[in-house]
Specification:
single chain; 338 residues; alpha+beta; five-stranded antiparallel sheet; 17% strand
């Protein structure tokens, strides 16, 4: 374990390197920070940190920069994330409050995160598998054609057209709508198949074909893989950090184009706590020079999806973590109220 003094030296190196983009020397450290020891002691501490792999000397520079291992320890030992100012919090709330539907919420969240952190923002749509049913609507479009509208507790709306085996009267449709909602409203999507499996048996023989057709479409909607959707924004922010990426940012951009890679980066939504993956902790080779800060968001205690940012390892971790957490909290409030 590092001594508290050496940990302070590491913190100072990380803060200076993130702020100045320049390798940090012992003289600069003692001038900028109240470390309470002589430059010679700081030099000894830096030598020890280098021996243990927390900092490294780039090229022939006299200064040192943090390694992935150094950033990891810095993040693990953070006393807390940097709180947003009152104007920042108000701006987040005002911007997100103007959203008109779920797509707009996600689009605004991506723009907001990218602007606040000046990194690449990634927001996952609420997953159907972790949602509950708010309402099922059935609308007659023609004698034998019905529109099914499925509304979730997260504000997501799915629409499907159904061609029924026989004409459906308005009263019969209203009856099916009422019975269906009485079974599934407020229930988890994963529970719905079991809840409706015997529903056709409660209808007259000549109505069962239509009921079964409607249920089949509903169940198809629940299991379709359209749920794993993402929105990404702020990719242009990476161009400001060209020198933070070895040789070129192209591998990073290529990795960000792959949705499967991004979903793995964000991690499982059920892990709703803050996760920070640094450099080589990211399994995808193209992202070995980046860090990912992600957190779950939801309409209650349980996360329904993840949001986060991707940027260079030379990142303002306390500020980025504070912004990501604050935005996630506001998005969760909006979903709860929608």
């Amino acid at each position: 374990m590092l001594s508290e003094r050496r940990l302070e030296v590491l913190r100072a190196i990380v803060q200076d390197y993130v702020g100045t983009e320049e390798p940090v020397g012992s003289k600069a450290l003692t001038e900028r920070h109240r470390l309470g020891v002589s430059p010679a002691t700081v030099r000894n501490d830096m030598a020890a940190l280098e021996d243990e792999g927390f900092i490294a000397q780039p090229h022939t520079s006299a200064g040192r920069i943090p390694t992935d291992k150094g950033y990891r320890l810095f993040v693990d030992k953070l006393a807390g994330v940097k709180p947003l100012s009152t104007p920042e919090r108000r701006a987040i709330q005002n911007f997100l409050d103007g959203a008109v539907d779920l797509d707009d919420v996600v689009a605004r969240t991506v723009r907001l995160l990218a602007q606040l952190t000046r990194q690449v923002a990634v927001v996952q749509y609420p997953s159907l598998s972790r949602s509950t049913v708010r309402h099922v609507e059935l609308l007659a479009l023609a004698p034998a054609r019905v529109m099914l509208v499925l509304i979730t507790d997260t504000g997501r709306v799915e629409q499907r057209m159904i061609d029924c085996p026989a004409p459906v009267g308005e009263n019969a449709l209203a009856d099916l709508r009422a019975r269906l909602n009485s079974r599934v409203v407020g229930r988890r999507f994963t529970d719905v198949p079991q809840l409706v499996q015997d529903l056709p048996d409660s209808f007259e023989q000549d109505e069962r074909g239509t009921v079964s057709t409607v249920l089949a479409t509903l169940l198809e909607t629940l299991v379709e893989e359209t749920e794993e959707r993402l929105m990404i924004g702020g990719t242009a922010n990476l161009t400001r950090f060209g020198h933070d990426f070895p040789l070129t940012i192209r591998p990073v951009l290529e990795a960000l184009e792959e949705q499967v890679v991004l979903l793995k980066l964000l991690g499982e939504a059920k892990d709703s706590g803050m996760t920070v993956r640094i450099g080589h902790e990211n399994a995808h080779e193209g992202l070995n020079s980046t860090s990912v800060v992600a957190v779950g968001y939801g309409s209650g205690d349980e996360a329904v999806a993840k949001l986060g940012v991707v940027g260079p390892t030379r990142m303002d971790y306390p500020g980025t973590m504070g912004a990501v957490r604050a935005v996630a909290r506001y998005v969760g409030q909006i979903l709860a109220e929608s």
